[in-house]
Each structure stands twice: as structure tokens, then as C-alpha cells.
Amino acid sequence: xxxxxxxxxxxxxxxxxxxxxxxxxxxxxxxxxxxxxxxxxxxxxxxxxxxxxxxxxxxxxxxxxxxxxxxxxxxxxxxxxxxxxxxxxxxxxxxxxxxxxxxxxxxxxxxxxxxxxxxxxxxxxxxxxxxxxxxxxxxxxxxxxxxxxxxxxxxxxxxxxxxxxxxxxxxxxxxxxxxxxxxxxxxxxxxxxxxxxxxxxxxxxxxxxxxxxxxxxxxxxxxxxxxxxxxxxxxxxxxxxxxxxxxxxxxxxxxxxxxxxxxxxxxxxxxxxxxxxxxxxxxxxxxxxxxxxxxxxxxxx
Amino acid sequence: xxxxxxxxxxxxxxxxxxxxxxxxxxxxxxxxxxxxxxxxxxxxxxxxxxxxxxxxxxxxxxxxxxxxxxxxxxxxxxxxxxxxxxxxxxxxxxxxxxxxxxxxxxxxxxxxxxxxxxxxxxxxxxxxxxxxxxxxxxxxxxxxxxxxxxxxxxxxxxxx
Lengths: 301, 160
Prior knowledge:
The complex is a heterodimer. Chain A is mainly β. Chain A has helices at 2-38, 269-274; strands at residues 43-45, 68-79, 93-102, 107-114, 119-129, 132-134, 141-151, 168-179, 184-195, 206-217, 222-231, 243-252, 255-262, 286-296. Chain A folds into two domains: 1-39; 46-296, monomeric porin ompg (Porin, Beta Barrel), CATH 2.40.160.40. Chain A has two helices and 14 strands. A twelve-stranded antiparallel β-barrel of chain A has the order 2-3-4-5-7-8-9-10-11-12-13-14. In chain A, strands 1-6 form a two-stranded antiparallel sheet. Chain A is elongated and about 115 Å long. By secondary structure, chain B is mostly beta strands. Chain B has one helix and nine strands, in the order ββββαβββββ. Chain B has one helix spanning 53-63; strands at 2-14, 19-24, 28-32, 37-43, 71-78, 88-100, 103-116, 119-129, 148-159.
């Protein structure tokens, strides 16, 4: 009896040392990685919240990298409901060509010209906060985008006293974005627009709107995007509606192709947020695309 | 128990149209001299030196998926016996599991060890086949990315 007890005790001892030994071999890496996880000496910044600096019409929280030139060509076609005769709007195109450039990691500038009202526009985008975890924990990315647009189309009535200032409009936009997962990102965009001249005396020169947008990745290189700007009814211009756009981003190396349907034809903040004439429920839907091609001008990263 | 005081990993993709090279100095590791066991690990998103910021983004987003698989690691055992208390130079083989992109491969990797005043310096060159670790390259970038990546590791380990 005593013999069996000793044997079983020995067996237990051996078994326990064996499991202990196994634990210690398996745990060397887990010890190390646990240490790495707990070490708070590095900040991991969230990147690629969106594929490019525009969500559809509006800005996303993304900046181009430092020393990167992004050439953007965008088209919005005519009304899809015009049917086959106009090839679903493809016969009529409105265009914007622009250049964006990253001065630093967090500051980019851009200029562009749209055929719509022969408008030149320029902007600065400053990333104030960047989503991160680790040493510095930040749940959101916050960007500020002021823009200026100059209409250069001939004055409607050249005989009256026209002022250059009447051609100008401004916008100030905050973008609060968060990448919730590899696939899902959302952003909120409160925006204030001021235009020096409005068509009707009772219209407001100041327009307040709040935008919401997001993306859902469908595969590594394709994402579905949506964007909506709600204009405060008290500040809304006569005969305009809120801008709603849905689209896809398709990325191939240095290019991003954005294909979308939208009720806006303008491609700068004032025109698509404050001056969207199309209505989705009336079938005023325009097909459009943005093509982005980046060139690295600066040094290595 | 030894641990990495400074460690660098550099990789190189030599393709017909483009050379991509990046490195990280964030290599961590521990080595149990008594059991001859080691573990090395690296946060994949610490690689720097790409040709463009976009390339770095694609490296993390599309190829290594560093959010999903944050670390690359190598753990295992040293085959040869080495007296770490004695200064000297050794050619050794490390056998273990190399995990990249969440896929483990059993590998035997040759290393050069230089021991000087209790500092163990490790140097190793090896290759990683992207296909071995389930990293797929789209056709359009076949000429820009090598299927075989050259890796160089340099690390100093000190006794804790």
C-alpha cells in the first residue's frame, strides 16, 4: 500500500514538473509579448482611417504624407435620369482639377479649379489630434479645414457696380474621425460657410451644416463610402437640398479611384454643402469620379 | 536570462522595378541561457524607411495587416552549446517557429554570435518567402515587390 502511495506521489510529481516544463517553454514568447504589450513607452498611431484625403465630395480626416504631391482629377456628370440620349448624364461633365501637397505630416495645402462657375479654391488642412493608443491614448482624430473659393465667372450684370468681394466664399470645417476597426471608420463634420453675396435679400450669408460620413471596407482594396451634410434649415438657401453621396474607393498602388453617385454637382465646400440643387427623390442623381495619384516629392519615410 | 538591449531588423525587397527597404530598431527578445531557449518579437508597424508614406501605409494595411497581426516573432532553441561567459565568436543554428502575418513556419536560422564582456551580439541574415506566410501580392505590383524578402537582424543581449 505504501509502495503504491509512493509511486502515485512520484507520478504526480513527474506529471506536475512536466506540465511546468511545458508551460515554461511555451511562455517565453508570451512573457516577452506581455511585457511588450504592457510597456507604455511607445505610442501607436492609427493610420489609414480612410483611403484618401476626400471621403466623396468632402474632406476626410486623412492628410497626404510629408513631401507628397497628390494630383486629383474629379468629374461629375449630368443627371442620370436624362436617360440614354445623354448616356445617363455622361455627355455633360463638370470637372475639378487640383493639387494637394503635404508640408508636414499634419499640415497639407491644396488648390484647385472647377469648371462650375469657373471657381478657384484653396484650402489648408491641419491635423490637430491623431487617434492613438499606447503611451498616448487618443480616441479620435481631429482636423481643421478652412477653405477659400473665388468664382471667376462673368458678373451676371456687368452694368451694375460689382465688387470683387462678391466672388468670395469661405468655409471652416472641423472633422472628428475615428477608425473603429480595420474595416469601419466614421467621421462628423460640423461646418460653417460664409458667402459674401447671396441671390436673395432674405437669404442668410452664413450657413451652418453638420456632416456625417463613413466607410466600410469590402476587401483590402475596396471600400464603400457614404457622406451626408445636413444644413440647418434656418440658414438653408432657397431651392437647395442636403448633399447625400454614396460611392466606392478602389485603390491600386499609388492610385485611388473613387466612383460615386451624388445629388451635388459642385466640388468645393460652398457648392456641394450649401448649393446642392439636386434631389435624390426626384431622380437628380449624378455619377462622378475622383482620381487621385500621389507622387513622392520629398525624401524617404 | 539575457534580454535584448538594442536590436534592429532590416528587410529588403529587391524587385525588377523597385527596391523597398525598411528597418525597425524596436526588436525585443529574451534568451534563457540555461535552457538554450529564446524568443524574439517585433511590433510590425515600427518599420520605417519606405520609399513613400503611402508605401508604409500599404505595408501595414494590405500586406502585413499589422493591426490584425501586430507582431512578428521567432521563438525556439539553439542547437549548439555556447559558453556565454567566455569571449568568443560562434556560428550557431537557431531552430524554432518564425511567425509573420499570423502564420508560423518552422525554421532553422544560422546566426553569428560574438561574445564580449558578457554582451552577446547576434547577427543573422535569412530570407522569408511571402507565400510561406500567406502574404499575397496582386498582379499589378509583381514587378515592384520581390516574392523573397531578405532580412537582416542585429541585436545585443545583456544578462539581466
